[in-house]
Write the structure tokens for this entry.
Amino acid sequence: MTDNPTTTPVSRMPDPGAYVPELADISAALFRATGNRSVPRATMSLVHLRAGQIVGNTYLTVLNTGFLRKAGVTEERITSVASWQDSPYFDPAERAALALVEAVLQPAAPGAERVTDELYAQAARHYDEKALATLTIAIGQIGFFIALAVIGKPQPVESLAARQWD
């Protein structure tokens, strides 16, 4: 058998859900908590894509790129997530969400807060209390899945229905 990236197993571990069945309940609860429509699903996928880029994880970047394509998001928007600060393709609310995920996942300067009062106020200008709570949970949700993706190294897939674990 030749090495073909689409058929060569790459997962470091077997499906953790096979050993910790509660994972399905946790995952479902997180998706329910963020699926209340107070924040557009595309915005959450943009945030999750940026998180995958920040931590350098192919699984998360491929998965969230697939979600965005399926939702009809343009290639220009998808490919410019990595450079969102100077991209013309994002509205102020999306920029605030992307700034929040960066602040949470990237180290702050010594002695500085990750999420400043100014950044929080910027996000609060674009999201009501329910939406801001939902966005915060969505950033926590991707943090939860970052550990599984970075440690377990599931196969890159564009849909959660695809086989991810060897």
Remarks:
- The chain has seven helices and no strands.
- The mean pLDDT is 92.
